[in-house]
């Protein structure tokens, strides 16, 4: 083998390099937090260095874990960079978990420093006595100068930051150093930790930039946009998009707690790009205050749960450009986007476009996805060939933190197993038909709860719907629909409309008549998980306790 001398610099893919270009390209671009804070990228970088000095003075070393309990904010963005750039690990705490689950994640991650928004003081009273590794706590006053935390702390975030130097030399280290850690909830047991390296997050950022910029329809994202995430920053790095927005030097808006401020910020800053779960989009467009708003410049990627055709239709009627994105906590998360292939924008009818944007999507660069049977064999394309999605990309978690057996199960045969049941259509798009645990088996036939939900969502009376399988002595399982109805509709006048809607799909040969749910149960609100997804395990328990 020929040996070549190496005189070059061994460039490591570190998060700090995401900042190199925007600080030169757009140093005066702005970052906003609610109606409280505005500063430039230049000032953002100064605050990152101050934050690094603060943690350095508190004794944080490489590999130590710093945890954050905050809403979507400029402070969170500062932590996305400062903590991993020091060589420490950022733990983004899911603030919607139960106190017991939160305490478990704090102790399991071995958090050393904890940053806490003032709103969570009552929670801290419950958590603090159970801390096993937390040594320092900093509280966030969020502009309330009269607030002083009652729990033991090092001081208020802004006051501590103001006292630090804005000179800090971020070190070089191995790109495979762990940068972030967070916990994903399952159906049973404690939350499971997933973790990602600098290399993985930088590659993920570059792949998202390529995927967002290469295709203009239905959704694109570039430096001309105004960005506001509507996905919690504790959840999968807000899908990694804050890193993308920062690298491109884009104007960024952080809404804090999800409330009426979202609509105000959308209008005030003329936001053009967001991402969220379906329930958040439903909340925005279903708000009476938005009825007359012009959404024609707003582009939204929907993930976390399936984008139903009903919600997609409602969004498109409001001139929102919308499409599905797919990924998981374990995948950092991006795997696919429902972008259009060449010619589709011009050639497809509105109904055909609706079909595309609600698909799971086409893999983004550097993602290998396939549908396999129980033996791990790849299935051919076609709706009749349904199996589990397995994936490989450079940015998948290496396993579950401190859970060796679960990690082996996740990575069976060298592919990450998603637990999502799908097929790949003739155009190469993946279409998820259900989660493995949510498929309904009735009379020996498989029925997709997601397909039923998408059909029912197109009924004029329906606001939201969730379908589950319930035990049945004769058929094994039968589908039941939980529904929230739009204003002016109730059980007395909506059930027949839902049945009529479903019968049109039966007559078209899309579903069988026996797949129509036996019951439609009206609710004021469908229960959600901590990240805004419909919580079907709660619905199953509720059905057994109240309706069976």
Summarize the structure in words.
With 548 residues, this protein is an alpha/beta fold. Among the domains are: 15-196, Rossmann fold (3-Layer(aba) Sandwich), CATH 3.40.50.12780; 440-547, GMP Synthetase, Chain A, domain 3 (2-Layer Sandwich). 31% of the residues lie in helices and 23% in strands. The chain has 18 helices and 25 strands. It has a 7-stranded mixed β-sheet, sandwiched between helices. Strands 12-13-14-15-16 form a 5-stranded mixed β-sheet, with helices on both faces. Strand 3 (65-69), helix 3 (74-86) and strand 4 (89-92) form a beta-alpha-beta unit. The longest helix has 17 residues, at 41-57.
**Average pLDDT over all residues:** 92
Q: Give the proportion of residues in helices.
A: 25-40%
Name the beta content range: 15-25%
Assign an overall shape: globular
The helix/strand class is alpha/beta
Number of helices: 18
CATH architectural group of the domain at 15-196:
3-Layer(aba) Sandwich
Separation, N- and C-terminal Cα atoms: 72 Å
Low-confidence stretches: none
Total beta-strand segments: 25
Sequence of strands across the biggest β-sheet: 7-6-5-3-4-8-9
The CATH superfamily of the domain at 15-196 bears the name ANL, N-terminal domain
Query: Might you state the CATH topology name of the domain at 15-196?
Result: Rossmann fold
Radius of gyration, Cα only, in angstroms? Answer: 24 Å
Q: Topology, please?
A:
Blueprint: H1 20-25, E1 30-33, E2 37-40, H2 41-57, E3 65-69, H3 74-86, E4 89-92, H4 99-109, E5 111-117, H5 121-127, E6 136-140, E7 155-156, H6 157-162, E8 178-184, E9 192-197, H7 198-214, E10 226-227, H8 236-239, H9 241-247, E11 251-254, H10 261-268, E12 273-276, H11 278-285, E13 299-302, H12 309-317, E14 321-327, E15 334-337, H13 344-347, H14 350-357, E16 362-363, E17 368-372, E18 387-392, H15 404-410, E19 416-424, E20 430-435, E21 440-442, E22 445-447, H16 449-456, E23 462-472, E24 476-485, H17 491-507, E25 519-522, H18 536-547
Helix pairs in contact: 2-3, 7-9
């Amino acid at each position: 083998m020929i040996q070549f001398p190496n005189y070059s610099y061994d460039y490591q893919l570190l998060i700090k390099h995401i900042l190199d270009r925007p600080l030169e390209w757009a140093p005066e671009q702005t970052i906003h937090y609610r109606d409280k804070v505005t500063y430039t990228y230049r000032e953002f970088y100064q605050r990152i260095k101050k934050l690094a000095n603060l943690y350095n003075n508190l004794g944080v070393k490489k590999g130590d874990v710093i945890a954050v309990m905050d809403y979507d904010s400029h402070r969170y963005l500062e932590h996305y960079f400062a903590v991993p750039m020091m060589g420490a690990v950022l733990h983004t705490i899911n603030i919607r978990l139960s106190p017991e689950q939160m305490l478990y994640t704090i102790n399991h991650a071995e958090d050393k420093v904890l940053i806490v928004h003032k709103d969570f003081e009552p929670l801290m009273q419950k958590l603090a006595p159970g801390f096993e590794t937390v040594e320092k706590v900093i509280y966030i006053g969020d502009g309330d100068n009269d607030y002083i935390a009652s729990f033991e702390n090092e001081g208020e975030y802004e006051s501590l930051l103001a006292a630090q130097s804005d000179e800090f030399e971020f070190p070089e280290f191995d790109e495979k150093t762990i940068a972030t850690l967070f916990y994903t909830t399952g159906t049973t047991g404690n939350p499971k930790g997933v973790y990602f390296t600098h290399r993985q997050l930088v590659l993920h950022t570059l792949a998202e930039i390529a995927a967002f910029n290469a295709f203009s329809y239905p959704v694109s994202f570039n430096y001309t946009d105004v960005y506001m995430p509507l996905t919690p920053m504790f959840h999968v790095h807000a899908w990694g998009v804050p890193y993308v927005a920062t690298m491109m030097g884009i104007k960024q808006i952080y809404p804090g707690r999800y409330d009426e401020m979202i609509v105000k910020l959308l209008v005030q800053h003329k936001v053009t790009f967001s991402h969220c779960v379906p329930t958040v989009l439903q909340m925005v467009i279903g708000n009476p205050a938005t009825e007359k708003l012009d959404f024609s410049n707003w582009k939204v990627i929907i993930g976390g749960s399936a984008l139903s055709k009903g919600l997609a239709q409602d969004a498109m009627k409001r001139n929102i450009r919308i499409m599905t994105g797919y990924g998981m906590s374990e995948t950092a998360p991006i795997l696919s986007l429902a972008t259009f292939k060449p010619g589709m924008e011009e050639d497809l009818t509105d109904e055909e476009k609706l079909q595309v944007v609600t698909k799971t999507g086409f893999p983004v660069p550097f993602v290998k996805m396939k549908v396999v049977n129980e033996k791990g064999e790849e299935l051919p394309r076609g709706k009749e060939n349904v199996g589990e999605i397995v994936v490989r990309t450079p940015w998948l978690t290496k396993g579950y933190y401190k859970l060796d057996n679960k990690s082996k199960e996740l990575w069976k045969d060298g592919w990450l197993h998603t637990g999502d049941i799908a097929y790949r259509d003739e155009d190469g798009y993946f279409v998820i038909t259900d989660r493995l645990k949510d498929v309904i088996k009735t009379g020996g036939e498989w029925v997709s709860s997601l397909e039923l939900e998408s059909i029912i969502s197109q009924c004029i009376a329906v606001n939201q719907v969730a379908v589950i399988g319930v035990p049945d002595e004769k058929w094994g399982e039968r589908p039941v629909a939980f529904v929230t109805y739009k204003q002016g509709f109730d059980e007395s006048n909506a059930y027949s409309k839902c049945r009529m809607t479903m019968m049109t799909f039966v007559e078209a040969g899309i579903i069988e008549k026996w797949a129509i749910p036996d019951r439609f149960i009206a609710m004021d609100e469908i229960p959600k998980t901590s990240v805004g997804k419909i919580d079907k395990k709660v619905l199953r328990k509720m059905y057994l306790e109240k309706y069976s």
